[in-house]
Amino acid sequence: MIIAIHQPNTHVVMSEKNNKKAYFIKKTIKLLNLKNAEIYDKAVEENTTNLGPFDVITARALAKTQKIISLSEHLLKQSGKFLLMKGTKEKVLNEVVQIDNKKYSYTIHNKNLKNLKRNILEINQK
Question: What's this model's pTM, rounded to 2 decimal places?
Answer without folding.
Answer: 0.86
